[in-house]
């Protein structure tokens, strides 16, 4: 929950490396030792701790997943989308993929609680890393996952390094190629102070926003145990784990994207903004999972 990355931020080609190692086993699940055997260092071309980090990031982003049949790994849905037979972005060169990875870490957050806290619980535009450690400590206690302050401090440092560029003169091998820094969501102001950049997020594709909305909706139903045919604007823009919070979108930008939601989701969703009612309705046929998969793949159609 608060470790596994071995203090290495996610790099440009690590997700592809993990997927390719798993994929070479074909329909058979890859053995657990693919990341821990003695030859792993040679196969991945990095040190032992970095191999462990690659495994962590690949699992966190659903590029690979633990096999249900044997004690091993198999391709995940996101991995198959990006690197599979009909690869949408095999070298992670498109804006859609970078925003997608951010959503998986800070929105879905299956193995990245710190990312979730940073982008959902921090209320101010500017903050210091020590403030995040305190927030995460409270979050961990509430979720019965107690960790030492040292572990939490390191996790916060890795999270922030994922989004902030390192000046060339101070860059090291450990800080090379932070995949998420191009998003411009965070900047460092010196003295251990950081700033969020809220706004339209012009590089965020509408398809990724729509995927995040559907993904958030599905998880909300799972948590509450209810089936909802509508979702209010306030939830989409401001609820913890919502697209508005995770992508740091202002209200006008959320509203603008929702005005196009019917086209983006092929009429699976419909936006209403009249007579004081601002909500998205689920009106299309098919399942939520079908709409999620279709919408995400559509984000890569030029």
Q: Any overview of this molecule?
A:
This protein has 302 residues and is of the alpha+beta class. The protein has 2 domains: 14-196, no CATH class; 206-298, Arc Repressor Mutant, subunit A. It contains 14 helices and 9 strands. It has helices at 14-23, 40-44, 48-60, 77-83, 95-108, 113-120, 129-142, 149-163, 206-224, 233-238, 243-246, 251-258, 261-264, 288-298, and strands at residues 30-31, 64-66, 72-75, 126-128, 186-190, 193-196, 230-232, 269-274, 277-282. The chain has a 3-stranded antiparallel beta sheet. Strands 4-6-5 form a 3-stranded antiparallel beta sheet. It starts with 13 loop residues before the first helix and ends with a helix.
Features:
14 helices; Arc Repressor Mutant, subunit A; 302 residues
In round numbers, the mean pLDDT is 91
Number of domains: 2
Which structural class fits the helix and strand makeup?
alpha+beta
Identify the overall geometry: globular
Largest sheet: 3 strands, antiparallel
- What is the total tally of β strands? 9
Low-confidence stretches: 167-175
The number of distinct helices, counting runs of at least 4 residues, comes to 14
What share of residues are in beta strands? 5-15%
C-alpha-based Rg, rounded:
19 Å
Instruction: Encode the helix/strand succession as letters.
Output: HEHHEEHHHEHHEEHEHHHHEEH
End-to-end Cα distance, whole Å, is 36 Å
Give the spatial strand order of the biggest sheet.
Answer: 1-3-2
Estimate the helix proportion, in percent.
Answer: 40-55%
């Amino acid at each position: 929950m608060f470790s596994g990355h071995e203090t290495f931020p996610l790099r440009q080609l690590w997700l592809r490396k993990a997927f390719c190692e798993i994929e070479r086993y074909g329909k058979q699940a890859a053995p657990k030792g693919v990341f821990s055997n003695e030859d792993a260092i040679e196969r991945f071309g990095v040190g032992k701790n970095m191999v462990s980090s690659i495994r962590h990031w690949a699992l966190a982003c659903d590029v690979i997943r633990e096999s249900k049949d044997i004690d091993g790994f198999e391709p995940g849905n996101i991995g198959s989308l990006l690197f599979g037979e009909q690869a949408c972005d095999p070298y992670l060169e498109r804006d859609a993929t970078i925003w997608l990875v951010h959503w998986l870490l800070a929105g879905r957050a299956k193995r990245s609680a710190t990312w979730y806290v940073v982008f959902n619980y921090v209320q101010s535009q500017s903050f210091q890393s020590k403030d995040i450690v305190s927030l995460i400590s409270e979050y961990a206690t509430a979720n019965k996952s107690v960790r030492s302050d040292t572990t939490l401090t390191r996790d916060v440092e890795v999270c922030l390094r994922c989004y902030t560029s390192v000046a060339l003169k101070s860059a090291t091998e450990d800080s090379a190629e932070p995949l998420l820094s191009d998003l411009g969501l965070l900047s460092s102001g010196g003295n251990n102070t950081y700033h969020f950049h809220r706004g339209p997020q012009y590089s965020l594709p509408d398809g990724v926003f729509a995927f995040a909305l559907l993904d958030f909706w599905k998880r909300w139903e799972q948590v509450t145990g209810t089936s909802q045919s509508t979702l209010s604007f306030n939830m989409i823009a401001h609820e913890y784990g919502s697209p508005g919070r995770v992508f740091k979108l202002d209200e006008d930008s959320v509203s603008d994207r929702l005005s196009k939601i019917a086209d983006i989701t092929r009429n699976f969703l419909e936006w209403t903004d009249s007579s004081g009612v601002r909500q998205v309705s689920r009106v299309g046929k098919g399942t939520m999972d079908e709409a999620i998969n279709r919408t995400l793949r559509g984000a890569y159609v030029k």
